[in-house]
Specification:
The chain is built from seven helices and five strands. It is of the alpha+beta class. A five-stranded mixed beta sheet has the order 1-2-5-3-4. Helix 2 (15-169) runs antiparallel to helix 3 and helix 3 crosses helix 5 (278-295). It is elongated, with a radius of gyration of 57 Å. The N and C termini lie far apart (168 Å).
């Protein structure tokens, strides 16, 4: 018992180790949970970013699909427009060819008409010469007839006097009878000559009437041909004015007055100057282009010219270069003609004229009237 009491008591305490192990395990679990939570968080953020990017990409793809659809529609519309334009171009080419054929046919017809007119003019000139000769012959025959009538009247008077003398004296000698017979024969011959002369005069008058009818018919044909040429030139003038209105636009300072295309002077020139400004040069370049395009269509037998008329207002000018408005208007018209020549128009188709203030459009004496009267007029006409 004593020995047992003396024996040391030994007890093992495992609780601290268990606590440490448990703590370590909890810490590890907490660490793993933290890592898991953080991984879940970052993974969720990454997935959310990817979803956002995916939605953005889907939106972009939708926009791209919409743009692609619009582009396809625009491409289809463009193809449709190209097809329509191709068809219109084919129609325009066919119309142009038809117009060219008609122009060539018209040119041939006009050439034939010109040949006929030339022959008609020659026949008319020959007829006029012949009529002049017939008129001279008729005048001479009329004078001769009047002279014969006077001689006949004188011989008749002598015969009557002789007859009265023979009746009164009742003595007719052989010589007096012979003289009376001679006078009677002369009177008969004169009457025959007078009758033949009257017949000749009537034939000449009939021939003259026939010549007049022929001349009238030739004149009518000539007038009809000239009227046709004037009408054709008027058609080209209308086409020219329409083309000018198209290229120049609707401007209040450029207008059509009758058969003339009118530019206000301010469009082309500075005040008191005959030098064309840049804006005026641009407008005249368009006019020259339109006229070059039209001149190809005008048949060569139409002797057309473009007349350029310069006009000023009533305000007088007196400078060393322009002593009067007449010189200023003429210089402006010549400047326009030279500019058109520089644009390629032939000089034999251009005419310049200056009228000063002598042909106003507005007779009033105010600023508006003076502005209207300061102008350059273009007229497409025959030479």
């Amino acid at each position: 018992m004593e020995f047992a009491s003396r024996r040391p008591q030994r007890s093992v305490n495992i609780w601290p180790g268990f606590v440490d192990a448990l703590t370590t395990l909890l810490l590890a679990l907490v660490f793993l949970l933290t890592v898991f939570v953080l991984a879940q968080f970052f993974l969720g953020e990454a997935l959310m970013g990817r979803d956002t990017a995916l939605r953005r990409m889907e939106g972009d793809m939708g926009e791209l699909a919409q743009l692609l659809s619009m582009e396809r529609k625009a491409n289809q519309d463009l193809r449709t427009n190209i097809t329509q334009m191709s068809q219109e171009l084919q129609v325009s080419i066919a119309a142009r060819d038809e117009l060219a054929d008609r122009g060539r046919a018209l040119g041939l017809k006009l050439a034939e008409t010109e040949t006929d007119l030339k022959g008609s003019r020659e026949a008319l000139a020959a007829g006029e010469t012949k009529i002049a000769g017939l008129v001279a012959d008729i005048a001479a025959l009329t004078a001769f007839r009047d002279e014969l009538e006077k001689k006949t009247a004188a011989l008749a008077g002598k015969a009557e006097a002789t007859d009265r003398a023979l009746i009164e004296e009742r003595k007719v000698s052989d010589s007096a009878r012979a003289q009376a017979a001679l006078l009677n024969r002369q009177m008969a011959e004169l009457r025959e000559q007078l009758a033949r002369l009257n017949q000749t005069l009537q034939a000449s008058e009939r021939l003259s009437e026939e010549q007049k009818v022929q001349i009238s018919a030739l004149g009518n044909r000539l007038n009809a041909a000239l009227a046709g040429k004037v009408q054709e030139l008027s058609r080209y003038r209308s086409e020219f004015f329409g083309r000018l209105r198209e290229v120049l636009g609707s401007r209040p300072d450029i207008r059509i007055v009758g058969d003339r295309f009118v530019f206000q002077s301010e469009v082309l020139f500075e005040s008191g100057s005959a030098d064309i400004g840049p804006a005026g040069a641009e407008q005249l370049a368009r006019v020259a282009a339109a006229l070059r395009e039209l001149s190809v269509k005008i048949p060569p037998d139409i002797d057309w010219v473009l007349r350029v008329d310069g006009h000023t207002d009533r305000v007088p000018i007196a400078t060393p270069r322009f002593p009067s408005n007449w010189e200023l208007s003429a210089a402006r018209a010549i400047s326009v003609v030279r500019h058109l020549m520089a644009q390629g128009l032939p000089a034999n188709r251009l005419v310049a004229a200056g009228f000063g203030e002598n042909q106003p459009l507005d007779d009033r004496n105010d600023a508006v009237a003076r502005m209207r009267n300061r102008r350059i007029e273009l007229k497409l006409t025959e030479r």
